[in-house]
Amino acid sequence: MRTRSVVVDLLWAGLAALVSAAPIDVELEHASPLAVAIATVAIAVRRLSPSAAMTATVALGAVQVAGGERPSLVDLAIAVVIGTVAVVGTRFEAVLAGLLAVVAGASASMYLSTTGYRYALLLNGPRDQVVLVLAAPALVLLSFWAAGLAGRAIRSQNAEAVRRADAEAAASRAEAVANRAEAVATRAVDEAEAERIRADIARDVHDVVGHSLAVIIAQADSVPFLDDEARIREVSATIASTARSSLVEVRQVLGHIDGSDTASDPTSFEEIVRGIRDAGVDVEHAVRGVARPLGAVHGTAARRVLQEMLTNALRHGAPGGAVEVRETWRSADLVLEVENAVPSDALPVGPGLGLEELAAAATGGVPVRATATATAGQPTATAEQPTVTSTRGSGRGLTGMQTRLTTIGGSFDAAVLDAVFVARARIPFDVRGGTTR
Fold this sequence. Notes:
This protein is an alpha+beta fold. The protein is built from twelve helices and eight strands. It folds into two domains: 2-172, no CATH class; 265-367 and 393-437, Histidine kinase-like ATPase, C-terminal domain (Heat Shock Protein 90). The longest helix has 96 residues, at 127-222.
């Protein structure tokens, strides 16, 4: 755009030079070649360098005065430069152009009043005429300057409108980008929430079904070795009750997803312990401290963790061994501990094993001791006692308990020491919807 303006100015300058130098019969005198050249330069550089153009107009006036030239077409260059500088020049240059209009107009009046015959005749008229004639040159130049200022204001308004439109367009683009980013973030949050819900369902179903199946299998394995019909009926009733309870809890897990969870007592630990006792396991349950409500989330976590710890004891504990359950209510949290003996021939190699080693052993990642052979005259299983089949687990129970408690600010650890498996869970109290860490 600037290059185009410069080219237009050069064309106008060339045209002005031709008109000023052409032998046209007008009432104005022809300017000198030097004055024409200076006027041409002033018009050509008026946009490139407003200060240089104003300097050229001053030089033009000086040349005309020094050569005693009469007014000619080149004098229009002064008005054009003043008007153009008022439009495109800096604020200082625009003010300087106004001063130039006043000074140049006053200088022209003084010069014409002493050298111009017809101008001198006009000065001999009435006072109003004299004032008008003396002010005419300055008024003409100031009118060009005022027109330039008006054009400057219009250009400023147009530029401001363009800037405002650009800003609004940029704001619209930024808003669109922000909306897209928000949509992406919302989708990511929804997907993460869906994944969390799926993980919660999988963990809860694993705990509920795994615990119930362990109890049911233990009860069912004992039926062939029972002679008492009443005891068989009692075991069958326990199996049915455990299955129904498992079905109810699975429904509660699924109901929690759509907000229809109606679990009223998630910390009924005695019921869980009684179910293990009914499976024929000797369970010692000790309670210390004063029990208090945990809240739905923390209570459900405590219930699921106790179920999983007892399920591990039932699956992997020594046949006929006792299980100790300690329930300790402290000032800020609940501590659940489960201890049970484990068969020495099924232990992973190592004198002391923690949570990571136990989880790896459950999935076959840690070597185990070879199974002990039967000594002479001592079979590995008697006819009166069912053979306990130890199945290798997935390792999800231990890590699942640790993950579940970590999310609510609790902790879980497990270790095997001296052929005794010890699992310990800490569940903080839910205080006004938050956790005590």
